[in-house]
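Reviewer 2 asked us to include a model.

Predict the structure of this chain.
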Amino acid sequence: MSSLNSTTPSQPPSFLLLGIPGLEKEQFWIAFPFCIMYAIAVLGNIILLIVIKTESSLHEPMYLFLAMLAFTDLVLSTSMLPKMLAIFWWGSGEIGFVSCLVQLFFVHTFTAVESGVLMAMALDRYFAICYPLRHSSILSMPVVTALSSLVLLRGVLLVAPGCFLLHRKDFCQHRVISHSYCEHMAVVKLVCEDTRVNAIYGIFVAFAVTVFDISVIVVSYTTILRTVLRLSSCNTLHKAFNTCVSHICVILPFYVSALFTYLNHRFGHSIPQHIHILVANLYLLVPPTLNPIIYGVRTKQLRDKIVVLFQRKGI
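Predicted model (structure tokens):
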């Protein structure tokens, strides 16, 4: 029996999330704009999903990828915002060990999925603008389904081993997480064993996902720009630019905040911890809030369908 106990990982029954260390008094008020942003994200993305599902004319690759982006944003924001608001408003920071790993899994998996969907949307625009006559045959419904499934599967397969490694580690008696959600490295810091494998694997996942997706996005939009500048029709040129600007407005906040969070976590030791955590929170909350607004306002076909939907409901 003693030998069995010696091989069983020592894990705390729960962790204590602090919220935003250094801003304990202010976080009560910070929760209000966070709550408003979350409400906008939930409402906006649900509207996008309803409109795309009910309008058969929107059953095209661009809008199907947008529907997947909306679903991803809903899961991503819901996996961390309700608990975060409970911490900010009621000081309810305790979270079970398994619940913490589940939150970690969903946050990091769907962050990777969001990156993959943005990459898929860039590919869709590439084929739509550079090969318009072959666009529907290249990105047929089976291809869109397969690409979406691969993006989701990639996120699950890359993040799951990290959670499995954490589950097999011995944790110290110190169970306080200086964060507002169960972020991977914040949890790793509580492990009593050697965590080099966890740290290296975390860097590998972030590097592999980000570098691959950004490379595809940059190559796609560089090619699109070169093709668009050769177009003779002003109307076609304006339409292509308008579509690409919407995508770029979505891509930039996601990757800029992700890059800042990563570099700050690895090298920004002089930056106050509360700044790092605030940016990490906004990194997961701003894109789900902005995405439905950007696409709902800038995409005419989608905007018109949303107006029709509200007219039917008598709003």
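Residues 1-6 have pLDDT under 50 and may be disordered. The beta strands are 14-17, 94-96, 176-177. We have added this to the supplementary material.
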